[in-house]
Amino acid sequence: MRQSGRTILVALAVGILCEGAAARATDRYRPDVLIIKLKPQAAKTAGLAGTVTRTGVRSLDELNVRLDIRGFRRIIPAAKLARTQKDVAGLGRYYIVQLAPGTNLDSARAAYAADANVEVAEPDYIEPMDMVPNDPDYAMQWTHSTSTDMDIDTQEAWDLEV
After folding, report:
1. Most exposed residue of 78, 95, 101, 153, measured as fewest CB within 10 angstroms of its CB?
2. 112 CB contacts (<8 Å, ≥6 apart)?
3. Do 118 and 38 touch, CB atoms closer than 8 A?
């Protein structure tokens, strides 16, 4: 009886730890957003339908309806790409897919990844920032950090925005 009680206690502790780890893992990405990269030919057509969820690419439009998405838009608007005249890195092929609340992110990602017009489908990852510059003279620049806190708080600012 005593061994069985320990086994249950250990199983309960492992379950609680795993549940906490799973909760923290979901904090690493937005639960209702996918980032997809279309293949070049699909990207030429996408966006021509002119609505929030219709792309002009049949398989994507069917998938968007089936998943009841809330939005489908380029990360970098076409007008900005047109000004550069070149999209060497393919940045114009990246889109944000806004999923309906409660949509299973893994299933949606797998569905988009399986589409022949999609090159990449992944969650919208969130990485915490803790920025310290790699300037070898940073420690000698007293305006960034002083013991009396009479400084310009650049370290704190870098952690907020880069």
Report:
1. 101
2. 34, 36, 63, 97, 118, 121
3. yes
- With 90 as the cut, is the pLDDT of residue 84 above it? no
Q: Which residue has the higher pLDDT, 11 or 48?
A: 48
Q: Which sign, positive or negative, has the C-alpha torsion 159, 126, 25, 101? A: positive
Q: Is 10 helix (H, G, I), strand (E, B) or coil?
A: helix
Do 46 and 55 touch, CB atoms closer than 8 A? yes
Sheet holding 29-38, edge to edge: 71-74, 94-98, 29-38, 118-125
Instruction: Give SS3 for 124.
Output: strand
Residue 6 DSSP label: H
Q: Bin 38: left if φ > 0, else alpha if -120 < ψ < 50, else beta.
A: beta
pLDDT, position 7: 40
Tokens of 103: 């949509």
